[in-house]
Design a protein that fits this description.
The complex is a heterodimer of chains A (307) and B (537). Chain A is mainly α. Chain A has helices at 2-29, 43-52, 59-71, 86-121, 126-140, 143-157, 172-201, 204-211, 216-228, 230-245, 248-254, 260-268, 272-300. The longest helix of chain A is centred in the middle third of the chain and has 36 residues, at 86-121.
Amino acid sequence: MLGYALRRVLSAIPIALIAVTVCFFILRLAPGGPFDGERALPPTVLANLRAHYNLDQPLINQYFIYLWRLLHGDLGPSMVIDGFNVSQLIRIGFPFTLTVALTAFVIATAIGVVAGMIAAVNQNKWPDYVLVLVVMLGVVVPNFLMAAILQLWFGVYLGWLPAGGWVNGSILHLVLPVTVLAWPHAARISRLMRGSMIEVLGTNYVRTAKSKGLGQRLVLARHAIKPALLPVVSYLGPGLSYLLTGSLAVEQIFGLPGIGKYFVTAALNRDYGIVLGTTILYMFIILALNLLVDLLYAWLDPKVRYR
Amino acid sequence: MKLHKTLTAVAAAGAVALMMSTAASAVTLQMHNGGDPGSLDPHKVSGDWENRVVGDYIEGLVTEDTKADAIPGQAESWDISEDGTVYTFHLREGIKWTDGEPVTAEDFVFAFQRLMNPATASEYAYLQYPIKNAEAINSGEITDFSQLGVKALDDKTVEITLEAATPYFLQALTHYTAYPVPKHLVDEFGDAWTDIEHIVANGPFKITEWLPGSYVHSVKNEDYYDAANVKIDEVYYHVLEDQAAALNRYRAGEFDILTDLPSDQYQWIQDNLPGQAHVEPFLGIYYYVLNQEKPPLNDPSIREALSISVLRDVIGPDILGTGELPAYGWVPEGTANYEGDVYMPEWATQPYEERVAKAKELLAAAGYTPENPLTLQLRYNTNDNHQRIAVAIAAMWEPIGVKVELFNAETAVHYDALRAGDFQVGRAGWLLDYSDAANTLDLLKTGTQQGDTMNWGNNYGRYSNPDFDKLMTDAAVELDLAKRAELLHQAETLAMDQFAAIPIYWYVSKNVVSPKITGFEDNAKDIHRTRWLTKAE
């Protein structure tokens, strides 16, 4: 298993290199550059800016300069945000994104698993239907709309919660963003859990367990939960990366200082430094999560062996 | 049951937090500021959201009053030479940076040299080109910065020499490009002088925190010469680009001022928060550029047909919903140093049917009819309002025999294409940097030859007319303000009669101001410094 993990980590290196290379060149192929704003810059100013960011050099040189810096842990400057470099922006913003995403992840996973189980055990009875309704809401309402609705209800009409913003250490400011992020995630997990639980409850070994007189709870706890969790676990990796990258709308609407928005706005502004920096960060997270999920699988499913 | 309890607990906690925040005695202004600043360095910023932050913490020789007119700032008085080319500023006694160092004439000299230094790559350095040798230094022709027309006669006296008398120069000095920077810190830290651990202020507020993506936080500078009259103790400049979310937070009482509002909510605000929306004329023009380098738009009669068939009266009230006024000329009404009648072509007052008929005739003469239409591509940068206007104008052009292909792209791509001349009709806008007619008319000047390429600057349509250029050059050296205005009027009439571009509407500024705030006076520059505001609890 350790050898397997090591091999996986090593194989991630070429993947990372390819991703960085593709991303670097695709960005440069896109028309427009970081200094194409509403107003034309005087040619001397433009030339100086381009020289400052090495944009006046041949593309291949720029690529190697970038790689060289990257190997030294330097993500380079942002071309639009002058006050911070990319590493600083990520260092400031990522903890917020991580806090919100992880909180949403834990809450959503717990709720999703329990709700899915309840629905499966009460298949086609009222708890199942209520669940379907709540789940559908979470899946079909896009998160920017959900955010706006919750903001209006809890922030404006009821006034129970802050409508947005960030105050250091305030849990209240996290309630709405986390809810918006967690809802669709919980919805998807509960659907997965319900489906696989129903399947597991119909298997021979569960029937055997029941027929030898074990109580419902014991059957669930000892025999059903673990195998039923398999599809859920395989979703967790992509699910968490979805939460981490999907925080854009939530951060924008609630004015949180995370990094989700850089991903999109920087791409629109052709801020090469930030786009590459955030892409690389997300790439590492996704690679790490996939590895983690694969290892978790081995523990859950006796049929999976690593070589 | 449990859920109910949790909600009650959350509500109680919220109420406690609310009471705590209102119990605090400090007067805190919560300002919705739109975008995230790119920098705090006055030589590196370019947006109005950056101006709000930077203009509160640094003050120039002159500063803005509540109406955004120039009043004494760090300089308490000044003398202007007879011929209007030499300004001598006398600094106030006792002014200092927040680290205790005095603000000296040398800080201003250094700042102007840094601004013009090509290595600083300051986007708006050209606003101070009236200063002697400024343009030559900024373009690298002169490398000896001491030749710049800004001198320190002594610690307290700054002398600025201009290339030629410039009627709007004091106005230009209110701009952040004319702000001083602390020489002692720039010498020590370079561009990093604006990092939070180094930054100092000489204005009414000093910056204490910058959380990118969320807010900039400033507190009152007790050493400011007018601190006794500054009523706000601290300011949060909130980053929030989603206008609907900003309005929600305003309604929740979290913001005192919104610096923009969602146009489709304007009527709702008028009905439900009467008197709080401030939609006011603003010096700026929304227009379409026509690529005149290539056929068919190099033909003035086709440009005329396109322009007169745009029914501008419906755009502000009906399409945008915020009542922007239709534009027929090139210089906004109320622009300074521009006495005389507003340009208003004859066709503007004709019934629309007649205009359409005329446009049809013009196009038919050029060989285009609804059966054999002229196909044009209309480019705009991706934005709901730009799209609505483009769709409406395409519909107005269809009956006269023009088939429009709409093409939208994000801002960087859009302007890249405009600058490269890779378009037929393109959306553009211009906000005046300072209140002077030359600032918009310059957009229509012929480009300058640079090496083997032409630099067209912001003249995307590449309108070129030697007579127009001559009027602009003559106006630039004309000392008599009335004569200068006359020359500029002639230039505007000439270009507009040739349909150099299609002006569509005059911009408005859109603020929402809580009734708790006083001292917010509407003005055409949309500049409202925090030092003039007060907030009642």
